[in-house]
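Attaching the record inline, Q. Sequence:
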Amino acid sequence: MHEQLHPMTPHHLPFYIAMPGDTDVLMIAMGIFLIAAVLGVGVLYLHLHSLPERLAHKSQKLQFEIVAVLGLVALFTHIHLFWIAALLLALVDLPDFGTPLRSIAGSVEKIAETSEGPVGSETPGEDQAAATYDETKPSVPNIPKKEARGHV
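Structure, as predicted:
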């Protein structure tokens, strides 16, 4: 059954005009393209949004956590200043204060363990140390003079 066209219709219709009752292929193709474009832009946005976290992943744990929190705050509030702060923090290497302080603390613990206590006991307890404390005498550790100068 051939449908007749209106007498005013041109004889050569463009390809994008669907005949009545036919499937509009161009509309289906554009719908698929629109869905793919929205998904592609969303993936690109999330990939770009996670850039500070990926940069800070190799840094210290505390710096990485701060960058991750700033990224989440920027994602949910849409305040771009948080994302810029996260990116700048991820790009800057913060100095490591923890390792030297842990080393100092470990050295002080070793010194405290090896220092000699009162005669007759290896390490005095708190009550024994309080009983032997005399306010009139200054507290000076018992270190031989050769060790104090660094000689062995």
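The mean pLDDT is 79. Helices lie at 25-49, 51-56, 61-77, 80-91, 98-114, 126-132, 145-148.

More tomorrow.
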